[in-house]
Amino acid sequence: MSAPESRGPPPGAATPRAVRAVSFDAAGTLFHPVRPVGELYATVAARHGVAIDAAALHARFGDAFRAAPPLAFPGVPTAELRGYEKSWWRDVVLRVFVGARFADFDVFFNDLFAFFASASTWRVDPDAPPLLAELRARGLATLVVSNFDARVRGILAALHLAPLIDRVTISSEAGAAKPDPAIFQRALADLGVAPGDVLHVGDTVREDLHGARAAGLQVVLVGDDALAAEAPDAVVVPRLAAITDHLTTPLRGDHLTTPR
Fold this sequence. Notes:
The chain has helices at residues 37-47, 54-67, 81-96, 105-115, 128-137, 151-158, 171-174, 181-188, 205-214, 225-230; strands at residues 21-24, 31-33, 122-124, 141-146, 167-170, 198-202, 218-222, 235-237. By secondary structure, the chain is an alpha/beta fold. It folds into 2 domains: 21-30 and 125-246, 3-Layer(aba) Sandwich (Rossmann fold); 34-120, Haloacid dehalogenase-like hydrolase (DNA polymerase, domain 1, Orthogonal Bundle), CATH 1.10.150.720. The termini are far apart. The relative contact order is 0.21.
């Protein structure tokens, strides 16, 4: 079944304010894995002599990821954050591969960690480059607000999206992870815009919809009928390009001057 053109709040809901900036989730919104995560995990495991069903790995990854604590480390010195990020992922991967016997788990994990930092593991959403370029033409600031780790910056650069994004805020550096509104507050702190002037675009109900709303942002989700059913009070569009229908700022109108 195809996704509807858009679904949103019932008639009579408050009219959104003019958008001056747009924030995006990263993985799952601006870019996607080239294959399901379970298949990718199985591919790397096979290089290390371990054969596990990809579907089982995919299910285990979902469970392990949801059970993990937030990927945020308040109070940790900046110089130590990369180590904390990698340890966080190591714990997740240990849960995914519980019971598996690797000759050297850390050698496998380092390979897997590097694999997911590579642009070849990801595909850019086809709507992302033209959409980001259009937002730039409208004079709107563009942000990424993500629970990914620092590898996201290299991925955005390799996928040629980085030049179209003004600011990247990740949970480990913000000390808070979505759905905590503090990560959005951190992202907007230097922009000089009110949260109500910002549209957040993502693909999850808990992290993106609930988190951004709690921070006072407008929200559009990108997804299929299942996502629309999960969030009946949200605007859900079938593809990134459709979010332009939810911007009220005129082309070349009053705009926000953003840092480059």
